[in-house]
């Protein structure tokens, strides 16, 4: 049997997985071999990722994958922006801090004192978000300079794990592009920004393209785990960009919504769109596979439902996402709306109560039951997608007849149907396993098994079932949208 198996690690905010993938008869086959929870740890007010445990879980996944037939290569994707700092001996200085930690509060203002906001946007083309690496690092410049003095290298999460596996310190392009320290046109670290913010340039590693084989498993790891020295490939380390690789279309112009904890709404372009309009819309030009740019809006996404669910569990009411969806379907739609991206919804905590407070403040009907809250979340997200659609269309000057929804969140039929209605566009939903498929496809491209992205997308379209949703209740949605827009700040 000469089919090549590759091992994909996909880390999400709540859990991570190890998946074996291979190409068989023109289709990608996947097998999940290991799943683990990902639990941030709060210590003395700082929210950390459990970096050491993450690496422990990677090792567990490797052992399981070996038992399931072995693999030629490993590729890792995670959320964006977060990083670990290494000292000159390559030792990790502290566990990575979570992007939802509040060390970045007020840092945007501080950064813009040192370099104008417009200039940062002009150089990076990135949406301003408190959690971007630029603001995390500046909080260290301002509050913990000694840590930066000790740091020899900063490695973004997938790059950090790749380093633990191989000993090679590199910055993979799609992750580097989430930092807001990258010059979007030159695709190099922006010296102008680094100098203005006194971030030491030497901590930033060499940037490598997505799909670079950066090394092989270190001998000590092979010995410890009893495996052969597989290749380690710096894939599209940013999960969103792995997902974009798997949009099952052959069109050059398409709209995708990657639905997970976040909803990433965007389109793929050959180069950045940076101008007054894009700054005003605060859209991101994020680096994608093959030096592409994805023009996108970050929308808070199903975090609202995930964190609400945790709240209800704390209150002794535990329901699955399927059950929550059923309750939402039974609630009366078009009653109350929130701006999902209002800042009070970012931090962990009692989201249902914050939603009620938003509705109270804006003089709307206050959603009381679980079903009403879930309905409010879904319809508000669908309307925020329309808002993003208008912004993206304004920036590119194009009209997109179809929306491709991908990722775990599309298991909610309600969200897909509401998205079709709110946007007045046909929705094609699938694949659910977008990020893992993209991760696997990039590995197979690096190994020469798949020719290019176009072929990868065709293979993925052939491998996966998609579902169509057509717009319904268009007039009601149009009326709702007019109302919704008044709540966006
Ligand atoms: C999605 C994602 C988004 C990024 C956010 C925080 O998982 O990677 O693209 O903006 O997480 O890093």
Automatic annotation (TrEMBL):
Annotated coiled-coil segments of the chain: none
Database matches in Pfam families: FGGY_C (PF02782), FGGY_N (PF00370)
Annotated ranges, domain Carbohydrate kinase FGGY C-terminal: 257-447
Superkingdom in the source lineage: Bacteria
Ranges of residues in domain Carbohydrate kinase FGGY N-terminal: 6-245
This protein's UniProt keywords: ATP-binding, Kinase, Nucleotide-binding, Rhamnose metabolism, Transferase
Family according to the record: Belongs to the FGGY kinase family.
PANTHER family referenced in this protein's UniProt entry, alphabetically: SUGAR KINASE
The protein's name: Rhamnulokinase
Lineage: Bacteria, Bacillati, Bacillota, Clostridia, Eubacteriales
